[in-house]
Each structure stands twice: as C-alpha cells, then as structure tokens.
Write a structure and sequence with these properties.
Chain lengths: ~270, ~270
DNA sequence: AAACAACGGTTCAATATATGAACCAGCCGA
DNA sequence: TCGGCTGGTTCATATATTGAACCGTTGTTT
C-alpha cells in the first residue's frame, strides 16, 4: 500500500467512540511505528484534516473536513436530498433507517435516522457496509456494476454465526433480491437485527446507493415486513427523484409483485 | 514535502468554483506528473475522500468527507456553536460576518453569514485567511501563540496595493490591536473592503479563532465602526462561551476603553 | 524524593518506495 | 484518416520512507 493510503488509514481511526486519539494509541491501533505515524499526522495536520488538542496533545479531526464536506454537499447534495425522506421512513416504521451510497466498489453510510418509538433500537456505527453481509451491500451486488461480486468474493468476512460466506448462498440472495426488488440481511452483520433494503438510482440512471430499515429481530413479523417494504419502495422512489434518477420499470414491477398477496394474484386475470 | 502532503494538496484543489476536476486538469494545476497524480487519486478514492464520476471520469470529493465532518462536529461543535451568533451579528450590522479558527499556524474559515440588508455585500471565498492581510489573521498574530509572527514573516503575499508587507507596519498593527482589542484590515486583502475582527477563546483559555465583520468601504463610517465593534465584542463573548472559553479581563478592559468616547474619559475621575 | 514507566517527539543509516518519460487505447472533431 | 486530447499503465532510476534507538518531559509508584 502506498504511504498516502497508510496515512489516510489514520484518518479513518477517528469515530464517535474515539474522536480524540493520542500518538501512542494510534501506533497501537495501526501497528505502525511511532515516527511513521507522527510524520503522517504532521502531514494531515498541515492540511488541516487533523489538529492537536493544545492540552492533551492528542489528535482529532481538523476544521478542513468541514470545508470539504461543504463542497461535497454543494457538488453532490445527496445527503440533504435523502434526510427528510429518511426521517419519515424512520417515523413510519418505528425503526432505524439508513441511506448508503456506492462510491467505487465500497458502500458508504451517508446518513441514518433513528425512531423514538421503541427504547430498543438498532444502532450501526460503521462507515462502510460490507457487501456480502448487509442488506445495503446485497442491494449493491444485485443492482450495481458488474465487477462488484468479484470484490465481495475476496472479503467474505464472518461477522456473526448467521453471516453467509459461501458464494452459493450469496448468489442465491442476489437472485432473490433481483426477483423481489428488496434485499435483506437476517442477522448476518449484527446479531438480532433484520434489515431490508431497496436500491436507489441517480441521474446517471445507474444504481447509486440503497435505503434500508434495520429492525430488532424480536419485533420483526410478516406484517411489519410488508409495511416496511411498502415504505421502503416509496422512500426509494422519493430519494431517487431527489438525486435526479428514477426507479426502473422492471423494479417497480418486481415490487408490485412481491407486495401483492397471493390471493389477489389469483383474483387478477 | 512528503508524498502524503502532496496527495493532500490534491484534495484542497476542489472548491466551489471547481468541484469536479479531471486528471489532466489536476496535473496542470499542481505541476505533477500524470502517473503520480493518478496514484494519489487512487489512494484518495480508496479511502472515499474522492470519487470518480462514472460518466466523465473526472474526480470530485467523496462521501467519506461527510462522515469525517460529522465526527468533527461531534468532537468540536464549534461551527454550530458560532452559527446563531454569527447570524445575529450579520443582521445587526447589515454586513457579512465571518468566524475563523486557528489550527496549527493557519487561520481557517469556519463559517460565514451574509446580511440581506444591502445589495452590495462582501463575499470572501477562501479557506485560509492570510495572517498579515486580514483582520482575522492579525487577531491571531496579536492574541495567538508566539511563533505565529515568524510564520507570517515568510509569507507576506501582496494582495492589493493596500496590503501591508513590511514587518514594521505589521508590528504596528499588532500593537494597536492589543491596545484596542480589535484588529482591522483596510482593503489589505480585498480592495474596497474594511474588516474589523475580535479574538475568540476556547476551553483551553487560549486564542482559538476570530469573529469579523467585513464592510463595503463606501459604507464604512465612524458611527458604523463603533456599532460594529460593540456587536463584535458581544459576539466574541457569546461564541467564546459556546466554545467553553471566556474573554480575558484585560481584553474586556481594552474593549471598554476603545469604545468609550474621549469626552466621557475626561468626565470620568 | 528517587525510581519508573509512558508519553510525544527526533535522528540517521538502510532500504523500500515514489517517480516520470515513454507508452497504450479510446474518444472527439477536423 | 489524421491529430490531439483524454484516462490509464509500465519499469528502470533515484528519491523519499522507514523504524530502532534516542532524548526530554510528565505524572505515577515505590
């Protein structure tokens, strides 16, 4: 890996649980040498991406990331284009809702929204969603660019006893997703969590991300599933429109079929 | 410069005017080799800091910057702690107000707010404020850490015919700022612009940034200057409090003196 | 108070890594 | 068809990165 890549790994160490990190701690987390980590941090600090707290001398993200975020938002106002819909989705379903975006071959968390209805909620605090183990990731594999499955093949990490790690089961999940229009993860990433996702499309007409609802497993019933899927389809249409895209007709048909109960199918001509 | 630093320079190329840049354009802007720039962009893309638009193959800031910004805001909610005050300041003065933060030896723009009162406004679209040529920069030199003047000495860029570029004039400006508690720039960075700034302090008790009002020169009168200074002092107190700091007593005294008209001084014992 | 450990930061020889000229392939307009 | 532009790739050269050992400081333990 290039030294640039290694330096950028340091940036990704900062998260909600650990927003300020000392030099030694950074060395421990990355396995890097102290001098190397120090030089990286110097470079990052020179560009304002990190800064040192004057008192503790530990490092935290710097003000430049705010600048960059503002420009990113101006360039691709996807986050703002998804937030209101996501709020409605979380309120309507009573669960935690996520929007992810595909960038290159990785699925990034864009924004999330928790419902206040239940005291138990699903809280997922990651920046990249594994392709093979999350509903959003499987949506990307099912509706995204071709080469994505090869990328997933190389990183079939086991997260829980339920994680599907064979290519056969993964292909089956993709087939089912393409058929029904919804992808799912039954505790394959976080135990006791059931997620359903629908794909999102942008102005290029291609898969751009996914919207998902993560439900606590004990609350998950056939009734809630159908309600969630209905809301997800609506949310997908709305966010895709905000992003300049539309839901493909074939996906609309897939949704319609999988949301129509069998007895109504028989009644139809 | 380290390769990490050079890679991060690429990041800073993206701005409002040019949010998407092609590989060749990046090479032109930086003078770097095509292969080098390409490898840097690959590294930046792998971490999600930039992404490629699928259609034009040009590069833009990626979704990871949003993640980082969220964590930064959570860690140091300075921007949010300054925004409401800045809005009031802009409304009260009828001018454009800025808040800058000192990170290392650079003064970064944190947020700004325009007034809608006049059709002509000062719009400053930079990410770093020069130490020697802006009111915010001179505030940093006057109230910030010791070594800052040495940094400024090395980069006395000329921006307008009014830019003060001698160390003598710069020292005079610093002395006057320490005496009055307000720094100023009379068109030294942008022509026809008069700026006044007051320092900000955070939980460390040290200088943390500045709040400034940029006025169109033709509107600038002794009356408006006094009003602006009064508002600036109030804004500085409020933002410093939001950041966990307080305005030092000696600065309060300096403000009080420079806001008291001479005839009242004579009347006092 | 002395000893100790952990911290951030610095140095310098060894070497792994970045570099860029040249090259390829695809696209567009003339 | 040509020429110029684009994004992307290769490989010998040489430069920038690396990490063990070091220093000074801080705060804790004996």
């Amino acid at each position: 890996m290039s030294s640039v890549g290694k330096a950028l790994e340091l940036l990704m160490l900062f998260n909600d649980a650990q927003p300020e990190i000392g030099l030694s701690q950074i060395c421990r987390l990355t396995g890097k040498d102290k001098a190397t980590a120090y030089r990286y941090l110097q470079a990052l600090e020179n560009s304002g991406l990190v800064e040192q707290t004057p008192l503790t001398r530990s490092y935290r993200l710097g003000p430049a990331v705010l600048q960059l975020a503002r420009i990113r938002e101006m360039t691709v106002p996807r986050k703002s284009g998804a937030e209101s819909t996501l709020r409605e989705l979380a309120d309507a379903t009573g669960e935690t809702a996520h929007v992810t975006v595909l960038s290159g071959t990785a699925v990034f968390a864009l924004t999330s929204c928790e419902s206040h209805r239940h005291s138990t909620r699903v809280i997922i605090d990651v920046q990249t969603f594994p392709l093979h183990a999350t509903a959003s990731g499987i949506a990307a594999l099912s509706f995204g660019p071709e080469g994505l499955l090869d990328v997933a093949k190389d990183t079939l990490t086991v997260f829980t006893p339920n994680t599907a790690t064979t290519m056969k089961s993964l292909r089956a999940a993709i087939d089912e997703t393409r058929r029904s229009g919804f992808s799912r993860s039954n505790g394959g990433f976080e135990s006791d969590t059931r997620s359903i996702a629908a794909p999102l499309f942008d102005q290029s007409g291609l898969f751009a991300g996914a919207v998902s609802v993560a439900s606590v497993a004990t609350r998950f019933t056939p009734e809630s599933e159908k309600m969630i899927k209905t809301r997800l389809a609506a949310a997908s249409r709305q966010i895709s429109r905000n992003w300049g895209g539309t839901v493909p007709d074939e996906l609309e048909r897939a949704w319609q079929q999988s949301l129509t109960p069998p007895h109504e199918l028989e009644a139809a001509p």
